[in-house]
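Milestone 3.1: sequence recovery, worked example.
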C-alpha cells in the first residue's frame, strides 16, 4: 500500500529544495571563467522578482498588465549577471536565468534589435516559465545607437558577432555548474538584428546551437543599411517627391482592394504581394496634390523604393519593398534615414563624420561588402552544412508586411542557402522558410503571426517533428485571438478548403501556390 506523506513533510522537502537552490545560486558568484567576472548571483523566490522599467528588449511586446502577471506567476530562479571582457575594450554584459526546479535541459538564447543594448527580461522570464535556462546580452555596449562603434573596433566586433558566442559559452558553463550536468539542447530565438545574429551564429559558430528560430533577419546588414539610406534619399530627392505618412494608408487600401482576392480568398490579406501587379499610375493626382492620390514625383520615388537599388552592372544591391506595405514608412517616412543605418556605415568606415548624402552604391557597396564580411554579414551559406551535419535545424520566418526589412531578402537568403548545400530537396529537413501574410516586422500586423518558436524548433530537433505547417494566431487589440491560420513552408501557401470560417486554421491546408 502506497504511503502518503503528510502535508507538513511535503512542505519540509519543498523548503529544502528551495534552500538548496538558493545555496547553489550563491556559490555561482565564486565561479571562475576566463576573462569573465560574475557580478552577482541572486536567488528569487516564486513571484518575487520585480521587472525593470524597460523589460522588453528585442522581441518584447506584452502589455504592462500581462507582463506583471507573468512575473507574479514565475517560479523561483537564480539570476546571474556577468561581464565578459575577451579584449581590453570589451564590456559584454550577460544575464543568465536558471530555473530552481524543473529544468528541462535546454538553453534559450535571445538577441538584440538594431544597436539596442537592452537585455529583455520578458524573454528570459518566458524561457524560465517553460523550464529553459534563459539568457541574453547587451551586444557589448550600453547605448541604443551605434556611436560607440567609431574608434572602438573591438566593440564593433562584439556587436557584430563575438558577444553572442561569448554569451552561449558562458551560459552553458554557468548552467553546468548550477545543475551539475551539461546543457542538452541550445536554441536561438530572435528576429531583426537578432535574426542577423542568428545567421551569424549558424555560419560563424555552427556548433553553438542545436537549432535556431530566426525571424525578419537584418542580413546582410551592410547592404540592408546602405539600401535603407538609398531609399530615403529617393523620397527626399526633392520636396515634391516626399510622401506624407497619411498617403501610405491610402496606398495600402488601394492595393488590398485590387489584390486581396488574387490568392482566391477575400480576407484582407495578400498571400504573396509579388503577384499583385498594382499600377501606381492609377493613383496619379488629376487636379493637384491631394490626400487621396499621388503626384508624379511621389510615384517615381515609390517605384524606385519598390525596385531597390542596383549597381551599374545591373546587380540588385538589396530587394525593394512590395507596393502597399502598410508598414512601409519605416525606412522612408522621415526627412533623413534611420540612425541605425547611418551608424552601421560609419562603423564599417570607422568615420564618425561620414555624410549619408554622399552614398554612392557603385563605389561604397563593394567597399562595405569587404569590410562587413566575417564581421556583421552572414553570406557564407555553405558553412551551414556543419550545423546540419550534427542535426541542427533552422526555422526561418519573415512577415510579408515587414516595413523595416524587405521580405524578398528572406527568400533570397533561403534559396541561396539551400542551393549552396545541395538544393531544397536535400536541405528541406534542416532549413525551412515561413512567409507570413500580413505579418509586420518581428510579429504583429494584419495577419496571424504569433506562434511559439521554441516549441516548433525543439520539436523539430528533439523529436524529428518537422514543421509541415505552423498554426499562428492574430491577437485583437482587446487581447483575444480573433483569427488563426496555418503558416506554410515556402513556397507553399495556406489554401481555403471551401467551407467553414476563414478565421479558423482548421479550414485551411498548405498547398502549392
Amino acid at each position: 500500500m502506497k504511503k502518503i506523506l503528510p502535508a507538513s513533510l511535503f512542505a519540509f522537502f519543498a523548503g529544502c529544495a528551495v534552500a538548496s537552490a538558493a545555496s547553489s545560486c550563491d556559490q555561482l558568484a565564486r565561479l571562475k571563467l576566463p576573462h569573465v567576472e560574475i557580478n552577482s548571483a541572486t536567488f528569487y523566490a516564486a513571484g518575487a522578482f520585480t521587472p525593470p522599467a524597460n523589460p522588453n528588449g528585442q522581441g518584447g511586446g506584452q502589455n504592462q498588465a500581462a507582463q506583471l502577471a507573468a512575473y507574479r506567476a514565475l517560479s523561483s530562479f537564480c539570476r546571474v549577471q556577468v561581464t565578459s571582457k575577451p579584449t581590453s575594450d570589451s564590456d559584454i554584459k550577460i544575464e543568465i536565468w536558471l530555473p530552481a526546479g524543473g529544468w528541462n535541459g535546454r538553453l534559450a538564447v535571445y538577441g538584440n534589435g538594431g544597436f539596442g543594448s537592452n537585455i529583455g527580461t520578458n524573454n528570459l522570464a518566458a524561457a524560465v516559465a517553460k523550464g529553459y535556462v534563459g539568457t541574453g546580452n547587451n551586444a557589448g555596449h550600453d547605448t541604443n545607437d551605434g556611436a560607440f562603434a567609431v574608434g572602438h573596433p573591438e566593440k564593433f566586433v562584439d556587436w557584430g558577432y563575438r558577444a553572442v558566442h561569448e554569451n552561449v559559452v558562458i551560459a552553458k558553463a554557468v548552467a553546468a555548474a548550477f545543475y551539475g550536468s551539461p546543457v542538452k539542447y541550445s536554441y536561438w530565438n530572435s528576429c531583426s538584428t537578432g535574426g542577423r545574429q542568428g545567421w551569424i551564429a549558424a555560419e560563424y559558430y555552427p556548433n553553438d546551437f542545436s537549432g535556431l528560430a530566426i525571424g525578419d533577419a537584418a542580413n546582410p546588414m551592410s547592404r540592408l543599411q546602405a539600401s535603407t539610406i538609398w531609399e530615403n534619399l529617393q523620397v527626399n530627392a526633392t520636396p515634391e517627391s516626399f510622401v506624407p505618412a497619411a498617403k501610405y494608408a491610402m496606398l495600402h487600401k488601394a492595393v488590398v482592394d485590387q489584390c486581396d482576392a488574387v490568392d482566391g480568398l477575400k480576407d484582407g490579406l495578400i498571400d504573396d504581394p509579388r503577384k499583385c501587379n498594382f499600377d501606381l499610375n492609377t493613383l496619379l493626382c488629376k487636379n493637384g496634390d491631394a490626400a487621396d492620390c499621388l503626384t508624379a514625383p511621389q510615384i517615381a520615388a515609390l517605384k524606385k523604393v519598390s525596385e531597390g537599388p542596383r549597381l551599374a552592372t545591373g546587380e540588385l544591391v538589396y530587394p525593394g519593398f512590395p507596393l502597399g506595405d502598410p508598414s512601409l514608412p519605416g525606412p522612408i517616412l522621415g526627412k533623413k534615414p534611420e540612425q541605425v543605418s547611418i551608424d552601421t556605415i560609419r562603423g564599417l568606415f570607422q568615420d564618425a563624420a561620414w555624410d549619408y548624402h554622399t552614398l554612392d552604391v557603385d563605389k561604397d557597396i563593394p567597399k562595405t561588402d569587404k569590410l562587413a564580411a566575417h564581421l556583421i554579414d552572414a553570406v557564407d551559406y555553405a558553412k551551414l552544412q556543419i550545423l546540419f551535419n550534427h542535426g541542427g535545424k533552422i526555422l526561418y520566418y519573415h512577415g510579408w508586411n515587414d516595413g523595416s526589412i524587405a521580405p524578398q531578402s528572406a527568400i533570397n537568403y533561403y534559396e541561396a542557402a539551400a542551393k549552396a548545400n545541395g538544393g531544397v530537396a536535400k536541405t528541406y529537413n534542416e532549413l525551412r522558410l515561413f512567409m507570413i501574410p500580413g505579418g509586420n516586422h518581428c510579429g504583429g500586423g494584419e495577419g496571424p503571426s504569433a506562434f511559439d518558436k521554441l516549441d516548433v524548433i525543439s520539436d523539430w530537433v528533439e523529436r524529428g517533428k518537422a514543421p509541415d505547417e505552423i498554426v499562428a494566431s492574430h491577437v485583437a487589440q482587446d487581447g483575444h485571438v480573433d483569427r488563426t491560420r496555418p503558416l506554410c513552408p515556402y513556397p507553399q501557401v495556406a489554401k481555403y478548403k471551401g467551407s467553414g470560417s476563414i478565421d479558423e486554421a482548421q479550414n485551411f491546408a498548405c498547398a502549392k501556390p
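The longest helix spans residues 153-179. Residues 56 and 122 are 5 Å apart (CA to CA).
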